[in-house]
Design brief:
It contains twelve helices and 18 strands. By secondary structure, it is an alpha+beta fold. Strand 11 (168-173) and strand 12 form a beta hairpin.
């Protein structure tokens, strides 16, 4: 298999020390896969996409290269997202993905022992999904596997005082899931999880363009529209020109999509996310709710970057809302902190 430039980008870590095996934290997200290595930080951040040849079942590309192939491949080559809504949809492909990631970030000269691996998973993970993640990681070459819930990892990555007797609230909006949690003393007190995320916003935009313009666009174009003119509460008149396929004539066609149209398209899934936040907030014990009035809540994940979302959430929840530093890396960085402080956080890991 030739992974060309992708594999070269993955071998970013420079060796430090003389450890026989490197401990890794993997944020196996629906949209992106990030890897944190002890003493190195985040050393990989790629889209969770594999390009496979259906005839030979060989992996042709991973990450950015595979993402760029979505909608542009011949019939025998498919771009696959092995996770949907935070759950493994293809066990074999997921195992290949984890194996490829691990083999790419662990230097051969340190290959005297297998690494200990900490994997971030949704807090709403089922026992079946949990076993699938553990088995896939072990078969990919891990010495031992530990799981950590994404809201806990996100809170650690956002530097919230989760081990203190204070209420901390985290809203992690990923590509396939939205998880809202109130955390205190190292545990989740209240949780509200939705199998809904950024990809659902993209799908809503695709449906709008198909209905209003009679044009079919791909998910990459829908994401471009969302990132460029998408908004949670602003009608500022912004617009973007995109191209798609006319459903009637079957020929390429350019259209102009405005912020108002995108707002109408994503209104329902956004309101579901906001409702989940408000429900979690209302379910918090009174003492912790008082803490949240002072400390507010923190947003992580790609959805937190949607224009105007933090302001709208703050207006509806009546508590301070801020976006974490590096929200796309918060979960991976938090898992990495847990990995570096393993003995201190062992009790909160899913073993």
């Amino acid at each position: 298999m030739n992974f060309s430039g992708a594999c070269k980008r993955w071998s970013l870590a420079q060796t430090r020390g003389t450890a026989l095996a490197r401990d890794l934290a993997i944020d196996l997200g629906t949209a992106n896969t990030l890897v944190y290595e002890s003493s190195q930080g985040v050393i990989l951040n790629e889209p969770t996409v594999l390009a496979m040849d259906t005839r030979s079942r060989q992996v042709l590309a991973f990450g950015t290269q595979a993402w760029e192939m979505i909608g542009r491949t011949p019939g025998h080559v498919v771009a696959i997202r092995p996770l949907r809504h935070g759950a493994i949809t293809d066990f074999d492909v997921t195992e290949r993905l984890i194996r490829l990631v691990m083999s790419s970030v662990v230097s051969r000269r340190f290959n005297f022992g297998k690494p200990r691996v900490l994997v971030c998973v949704p807090a709403s993970i089922t026992p079946v999904e949990r076993r699938a993640v553990e088995e896939a990681t072990m078969r990919a070459g891990a010495k031992s596997v530990y799981l950590i819930k994404q809201p806990l990892a996100a809170a650690m990555g956002a530097s919230l005082p989760i081990n203190e007797p204070l209420g901390s609230m985290i809203v992690d909006m990923g590509g396939g899931t939205t998880e809202v949690a109130v955390i205190s003393l190292g545990g989740i007190v209240t949780l509200n999880a939705l199998r809904l995320g950024g990809f659902d916003l993209d799908a809503s935009i695709q449906a709008l363009v198909r209905k209003e313009f009679g044009v079919a666009i791909g998910e990459r174009t829908a994401e471009e529209i969302k990132c460029t003119v998408g908004s949670a509460n602003k009608m500022n008149g912004s617009k973007i020109e995109v191209r798609g396929r006319d459903l009637v004539a079957g020929v390429p066609r350019s259209i102009v999509v405005t912020t108002e149209e995108v707002y109408a398209a994503i209104k329902d899934p956004l309101e579901q996310s906001i409702t989940a936040v408000l429900n979690c907030l209302s379910s918090a014990p009174p003492e912790l709710a008082q803490d949240l009035m002072v400390g507010g809540m923190v947003l992580t994940g790609g959805g937190s970057l949607l224009d105007g979302f933090a302001e709208r959430l703050q207006a509806e929840a009546q508590v301070q809302v801020r976006v974490a530093d590096s929200p796309l890396e918060a979960v991976a960085r938090g898992a990495g902190w847990a990995l570096d402080s393993f003995d201190l956080v062992r009790e909160i890991l899913m073993q």
